[in-house]
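Page 42, continued from yesterday. The earlier attempt failed because a stray header line got pasted into the input along with the sequence. Redoing it now with the clean sequence only.
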Amino acid sequence: MADRLGQISGHITNTYGRGLLAGEVAIITGEPYSEGIGRSAAILFSKEGAKVVVTDIDAKKVDIVVGEIKKLGGDAIGVAGDVAADDFPKKIIDATVQKYGKINHIVNNAGFTFDKMLHTMPDEAYDIIMKVHVRAPFRLVRAAAPYFRVKGEARENRTVTMVSSTSGLHGNVGQANYAAAKAAVVGLTKTIAKEWGPFGVRANTVAYGMVHTRLTAAKEAGESIEIDGKKVALGIPQPSKAPEPDSLFATIPLGRGGTPDEAAAAMLFLSSPLSSYISGHTLEVTGGRGI
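This time it went through. Structure tokens are written below.
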């Protein structure tokens, strides 16, 4: 036990100066947009020494982020594809292992909203959200099992980070599908923590509040995503009468929304040796909202 604790403490000390994730490999799914959490996480992980695998349904955006990382001197590859597709887990796992030989971190960040009031929500709106937010992460983590369930004491830092939301913790009007999916993610994460903890794997969830991305921008801006050939509008409908600026963040003690970089920092913390004794936890990143 003393040797094991020494390994952990040494890893924290030795990697800090070279990057918290030096020499490690991270798969980060979703949102490689200029305002997306996925992009911020990919760049931040790379700056901390990780080799990053960027993925999203939009191949052009993936290539842009990979280019940004390489321009900064980092190492990254892009694997475009639909996280909900049956062949996606094998595709990204194979590409990662072929390039880097291992996997240390999976950050299941891909997702979107498909808001409808409960009494008008069609089955397809519920099913696709569950498929992308719950089934897809489950299948990706399952496919990566051989690279995480590693026996022996000399194990590298390995983590699974899931993304939830305050909607999953407290529910939200117009988001029966999204709230159900994000609640399910918490249970999935805790199960991974219990099953894979004996192999030294940590699994945690980040539950975000208001973070400024295209998912929280005004719906009237016209942002959308194409799912199964259909366009799904993104964003939050704005009231007909503009609210007072202060009222937008009245329930947030810090008085503002978060940035993608701040959201990504929580992912980095949970993936790094700084959280080496944290597993099965749901970290609320909300600016204090909901306390």
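Notes: Residues 11-17 have pLDDT under 50 and may be disordered.
Reminder to self: strip header lines before submitting.
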